[in-house]
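Hi R.,

As promised on Friday, here is the backbone we talked about, encoded as structure tokens. Could you run it through your design pipeline when you get a chance and send me back a sequence?
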């Protein structure tokens, strides 16, 4: 019987973000007859997703709440290298820190490391100190595989760094359609009952500049000025709440825009929405677009880098508009709200398109990457051994 491949997944923390949730979803679905996963977490104390760690998967947490790397200068590398030596493949679950650790561990132990690229790195670099750009060049050039969540993220990274074509693989995020199907059947919250009486456009995500909710609010105001009666509901929390609330008051739409904050289960809201709007200025993939399609809600999205246009296949499964264009977004939403035949077609086709991102499709692709990386290392070992005889 062939030994299972031991795969070590490196996390900075289990913060509750989409990247960590998708990573844990992949780990939980790996074929246990072929793979033996384990998890190394740099920072504990913010374990929003600890309950989603698959049962039976070993977890090593290095730093406690409030601790920094300088508090454990020997323990961090010691635990990392100990775990890496027992692995066949190491996976950095997101760009920057986890991938740096994966690359370092691979270099020091001879194990192959995989980087998981989730964002358009030009935007990521713009938000980080300049040394990240240099360090990532050094680390990424040494990795045998870089798994990108969309063709757009691959193309951006290929433009920013000199990398070999054979290093890249594009594997879309596995989206848990079974959970979405179960959760969307739940009841609407009491505060959202108005969705059953008035057409409601739904937005969802962190209240940050990236998500472009200021553009969505302006589009809503324009659409109401054109006589299209509807509400706008944006679920999520973030540092721009105050600015968005000021904009809502400035535009005179306080009675029709609602910011309820974080909603643990947004899928009943998606199921009852008249349209879902993604107003982002950039994405890496755009899981929420697939989630909306799975719930059968018509999607209007900015054609931002990267992901939404790929998910919607250039507009076959939803409407695409330019980024930061409130007028175009308003017109597209008005089209969906006013064209019942179009809305019905999008509602019918959305769930079918969402199935292309089901774990049954994407997890085997990830398993293929892990196998080929491990096989590459095994072939290199045989070559080295042969040269020494």
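Update: got your reply. Pasting your designed sequence below so it's all in one thread:
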């Amino acid at each position: 019987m062939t030994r299972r491949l031991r795969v070590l997944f490196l996390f900075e923390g289990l913060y509750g973000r989409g990247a960590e949730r998708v990573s844990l979803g992949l780990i939980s679905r790996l074929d246990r007859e072929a793979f033996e996963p384990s998890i190394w977490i740099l920072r504990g104390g913010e374990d929003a997703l600890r309950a989603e760690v698959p049962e039976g998967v070993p977890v090593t947490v290095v730093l406690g709440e409030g601790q920094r790397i300088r508090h454990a200068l020997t323990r961090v590398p010691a635990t990392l290298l100990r775990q890496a030596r027992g692995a066949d493949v190491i996976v950095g679950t997101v760009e920057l820190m986890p991938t740096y650790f994966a690359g370092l561990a691979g270099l020091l132990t001879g194990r192959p490391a995989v980087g998981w690229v989730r964002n358009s790195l030009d935007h990521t670099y713009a938000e980080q100190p300049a040394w990240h750009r240099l360090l990532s060049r050094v680390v990424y050039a040494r990795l045998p595989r870089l798994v990108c969540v969309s063709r757009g993220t691959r193309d951006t990274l290929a433009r920013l760094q000199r990398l070999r074509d054979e290093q890249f693989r594009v594997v879309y995020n596995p989206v848990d359609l079974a959970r979405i199907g179960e959760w969307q059947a739940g009841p609407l919250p009491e505060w959202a009952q108005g969705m059953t009486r008035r057409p409601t456009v739904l937005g969802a995500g962190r209240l940050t500049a990236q998500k472009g909710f200021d553009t969505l609010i302006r589009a809503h105001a324009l659409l109401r000025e054109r006589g299209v009666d509807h509400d706008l509901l944006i679920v999520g929390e973030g540092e721009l709440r105050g600015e968005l609330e000021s904009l809502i008051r400035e535009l005179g739409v306080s009675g029709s825009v609602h910011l309820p904050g974080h909603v643990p289960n947004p899928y009943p809201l998606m199921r009852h929405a008249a349209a879902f709007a993604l107003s982002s200025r950039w994405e890496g993939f755009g899981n929420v677009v697939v989630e909306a399609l799975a719930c059968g809600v018509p999607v209007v999205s900015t054609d931002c880098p990267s992901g939404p246009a790929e998910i919607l296949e250039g507009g076959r499964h939803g409407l695409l508009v330019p980024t930061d264009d409130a007028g175009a977004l308003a017109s597209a939403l008005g089209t969906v709200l006013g064209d019942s035949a179009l809305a019905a077609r999008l509602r019918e086709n959305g769930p079918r398109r969402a199935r292309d991102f089901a774990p049954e499709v994407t997890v085997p692709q990830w398993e293929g990457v892990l196998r080929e990386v491990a096989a590459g290392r095994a072939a290199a070992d045989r070559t080295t051994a042969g040269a020494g005889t």
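One thing I noticed while checking it: The first helix runs from residue 18 to 29.

Thanks again,
M.
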